[in-house]
Design a protein that fits this description.
five-stranded antiparallel beta sheet; 12% helix; Metal Binding Protein, Guanine Nucleotide Exchange Factor, Chain A; globular; mainly beta
C-alpha cells in the first residue's frame, strides 16, 4: 500500500510504501512538549520506503531539541510537521505524522501514548534504528 501525506500547503510531501498492506497502523502520541503542542502522532514501518518531496526546500525549517538527535521538518509556510528524520551511523531513519496522511482509513490507526524522556541517547538511537522507516530518500524538487 502506498500512503501519501503532506503538510497543509503541500510544500513537504511524502509517499510511504508500506508492505504488506497493513491491517493496522501504529499511531504513537509522544508526550514530549513539542509533539504535544503540535498534536503530532507518529507512525513508521521499518520495512517501508519513504520518499520525501520538497516544493521549496528554503521554506522548510529544521528543529531539534533535547538530545538534538531528531530533526523535525517544519513547513515555514503553514507550520505543519509532517515528518522527523534521524541519522544513525550511516543511515537515515524517519517517522511520519499520521495527521498528515491523505489516504488512510482512520479505522486502521491504533492510537497509543508513548514516552521516551527516560531514554539515554544510545537507547533512543537503537530504538529508532530498529523501529523507524529505514529506507528514506529525498526526491527531486516538486514543480
Amino acid at each position: 500500500m502506498q500512503l501519501h501525506g503532506q503538510c497543509h500547503c503541500g510544500n513537504i510531501a511524502y509517499t510511504l510504501d508500506w508492505a504488506p498492506d497493513p491491517t493496522e497502523i501504529p499511531a504513537r502520541a509522544c508526550d514530549c512538549s513539542f509533539c504535544t503542542r503540535h498534536g503530532a502522532v507518529w507512525t513508521s514501518n521499518p520495512d517501508g520506503h519513504l520518499r520525501i518531496q520538497l516544493r521549496d526546500p528554503a521554506a522548510v525549517s529544521h528543529y531539534a531539541f533535547g538530545t538534538s538527535t531528531a530533526n523535525f521538518h517544519v513547513c515555514s509556510r503553514c507550520g505543519v510537521v509532517p515528518l522527523v528524520t534521524c541519522a544513525v551511523d550511516d543511515g537515515l531513519y524517519a517517522v511520519v505524522n499520521v495527521n498528515t496522511l491523505d489516504n488512510v482509513d482512520p479505522a486502521l490507526l491504533r492510537h497509543r501514548s508513548a514516552s521516551f524522556s527516560e531514554e539515554d541517547v544510545s537507547s533512543k538511537l537503537a530504538r529508532r534504528q530498529a523501529n523507524w522507516i529505514a529506507r528514506v530518500s529525498f526526491a527531486e524538487r516538486l514543480d
